[in-house]
Design a protein that fits this description.
heterodimer; A: Rossmann fold; 7 helices; B: alpha+beta; 2 domains; 6-stranded mixed barrel; 13 helices; 10 strands; 55% helix
């Protein structure tokens, strides 16, 4: 796999810019003309200290926010022109979110948590159960379907969350500090799971401040003061 | 999200906090039950008045002697002097063609005796048209012959209540009943009319011919010749009532030789008008009752709004997550609106059941007229839905406008 991938880009930004409170004294330029291209099937890390703008970038990549300037093509669709309703549809179909805090609904069991996003995708009820079961099996939790989050370990909860992120078969998996709340051994297991998902054809974008986590990825981008640079030392084929 | 899914999600959310949901519903339950009870009582009272109107006839006028002046200008009550005569009645019949039926009458109280039974009752001395004007029909017997009215025949027709008290299961026809000291022969009984609009038992009376009453029952009172206590008349068309009333007033003033500027010594009453006033009063009462019920429903609705706002605040993170996985503002709004609607619908169903029981109980225990019908229940169901929609909309909209980034950041 090379940096200039022949494969189609699932994430492509040109001159992406985000300014908070523009025109006021409190104006903050959180993103400076970010150009980023991630091809299908890549495993990419975006690193940076807190305050560097990586959360802003993630919110934009996740279609949770709109840029002040520049374009973002999410799987070929320009999100700049979309309203809240259309962005929701895009998130549903294109993005799978994995959060640091898992964000499972406490009153639902694992299967229900995994199946929840399908309710918004109008998947027939009969198909939902089957797909949720398969997704749980894919993350190695086939026997935990009827456990509530409180009855699962942190690693298991994150696996449920990953199964949920995959359930609507999005092209992009967006993981925000997915190992941040886990001990290092469990964190390794989750990263292995991401690698396996990549081998199966998923695109994974991992946001982290932890270099050890980032080094599992094929490419590393570093955010600093709102600007994004690719870490040239860490190139596929290069020495890690 | 399809509607079934929305409802399922709403039920799931409400079950998670079932006590809170139930208590919130209780506000609506009380409101809806109150609406049903109040409106039922209002409608029942109205129905009662309608019955009264149809019982009286809407094209009837009653003339009674006016309040006259005694010595030194002291006013004495209406009907206490005898300014009307049966000749007045005769004159009205002849001069005013719109008058279709007319009957002068006298009335009083007396002790009624048959064998060892006795009963304190009232009597009416009437002219032939009285039966039609007052809406009476005979249940048995032939009633009075035309000749009986002039001749002072000692014949009597019994109202149902009097017949029951004096005769029980016995046949009254042809028997002799004493009114005071005077023996009368029973020539008929009246078909019962039941309780009147003003709560009195209409059937508690006996009827004798006017001339008989004057000679045999009023004899000791020293009436002026031909005096009567009331003249009742029926007009063919209700639209003519006002005109006829004016004609009568003019005619009687002329007959009684009243100078211009002098007060009438009689009074013409349009009972339909009196009833109309009463109808208005009742309508006002119904409106007030309904308003009280409506206020309790509003309080219930505010309860829903309050709880939904709390629920939105509590579940900000869940809302953020749902938005992240693909719920649009519309989906979120639908979900919270469905929850509010479900609370108010459950409240509506239970409230309707409770209100129906309540209305029946009020009717039984409070002896109030109650009319429970589909309209009332439909109204209540509509109100419960409207409450849910109205008070659920703001919290639902608030939830739908949340920024997913902010919502996910919430702890």
């Amino acid at each position: 796999m090379s940096a200039v991938s022949p494969r189609a880009a699932v994430i492509e930004t040109r001159g992406l810019r985000k300014v908070y409170s523009p025109g006021s004294e409190a104006e903050v330029v959180a993103l400076h003309d970010v150009d980023l291209r991630i091809a299908a099937g890549e495993f990419v890390a975006i690193m940076g200290p807190s305050g560097s703008g990586k959360s802003t970038l993630m919110n934009l990549l996740g279609c949770l926010d709109t840029p002040t300037a520049g374009t973002y093509l999410c799987d070929g669709i320009d999100i700049g022109a979309l309203d809240a309703e259309a962005r929701a549809v895009l998130r549903r179909d294109k993005i799978g979110f994995v959060f640091q805090g898992f964000n499972l609904l406490p009153r639902m069991d694992a299967l229900e948590n995994v199946a929840m996003p399908m309710g918004y995708a109008n998947v027939p009820a009969a198909e939902r159960r089957e797909r949720a079961r398969e997704a749980l099996a894919a993350v190695g939790l086939e026997n935990r379907g009827h456990h509530r989050p409180s009855e699962l370990s942190g690693g298991q909860q994150q696996r449920v969350a990953i199964a949920r992120a995959l359930i609507n078969r999005p092209p992009v998996l967006l993981a925000d500090e997915p190992t941040g709340a886990l001990d290092s051994k469990t964190g390794e297991e989750i990263l292995e799971l991401f690698k396996r998902l990549q081998r199966e054809g998923h695109t994974v974008v991992l946001i982290t401040h932890d270099p050890d986590v980032a080094h599992h990825c094929d490419r590393i981008f570093v955010m600093r003061d709102g600007e994004l640079h690719e870490d040239a030392a860490h190139r596929p084929g290069g020495t890690p | 999200m399809n509607p079934m899914e929305v409802i399922r999600t709403a039920i799931f959310a409400l079950r998670g906090n079932w006590l809170r949901s139930a208590l919130t519903s209780l506000g609506v339950i009380i409101g809806i039950a109150a609406v049903i009870v109040m409106v039922s009582v209002g409608q029942g009272t109205q129905a009662e008045i309608d019955k009264l109107v149809s019982g009286l006839g809407s094209n009837r006028l009653d003339i009674s002697p006016g309040s006259g002046r005694g010595f030194g200008g002291v006013r004495i009550g209406s009907g206490s002097n005898f300014t009307l005569t049966d000749e007045d009645a005769e004159a009205i019949r002849e001069e005013i063609p719109e008058v279709q039926t007319i009957a002068a009458s006298l009335r009083g109280n007396t002790q009624l005796v048959y064998a060892e039974n006795n009963w304190a009752g009232s009597w009416q001395g009437v002219q032939p048209d009285w039966f039609e004007i007052d809406g009476w029909t005979l249940a048995s017997g032939e009633g009075f012959e035309p000749g009986d009215y002039g001749g002072g025949a000692k014949e009597v027709i019994l109202g149902e209540a009097v017949r029951r008290e004096l005769f029980g299961d016995e046949d009254a026809l042809g028997q002799t009943v004493r009114l005071g000291r005077v023996p009368f022969t029973v020539v008929g009984t009246l078909a019962p009319k039941g309780q009147g609009g003003f709560g009195q038992d209409q059937d508690d009376l006996v009827v004798v011919p006017l001339e008989t009453a004057r000679r045999r029952l009023m004899g000791s009172m020293g009436l002026p010749p031909g005096a009567v206590m009331q003249i009742s008349l029926g007009v063919a068309n209700a639209e003519d009532l006002a005109y006829v009333q004016g004609e009568i007033e003019a005619l009687l003033r002329q007959r009684h030789r009243l100078q211009p500027g002098a007060e009438d010594d009689f009074r013409v009453r349009n009972i339909a008008e009196i009833v109309a006033t009463r109808t208005q009063t009742t309508r006002l009462m119904s409106l007030l009752l309904g308003a009280v019920a409506g206020i309790s429903l509003i309080v219930g609705g505010i309860g829903i709004m309050n709880i939904m706002l709390v629920s939105v605040t509590e579940r900000i993170r869940e809302i953020g997550l749902r938005m992240a996985v693909g719920a649009g503002p519309r989906d979120i709004r639908a979900q919270f609106l469905a929850e509010a609607l479900l609370i108010s619908l459950i409240g509506g169903v239970v409230g309707i059941a409770l209100g129906m029981v309540g209305a029946v109980l009020v009717g039984k225990l409070g002896a109030l007229p109650v009319a429970l019908n589909g309209k009332v229940i439909g109204l209540a169901a509509g109100f419960s839905i409207a409450t849910g929609l109205f008070f659920g909309y703001y919290p639902a909209r608030k939830a739908s406008l949340l920024d997913p980034i902010e919502a996910l950041r919430q702890q």
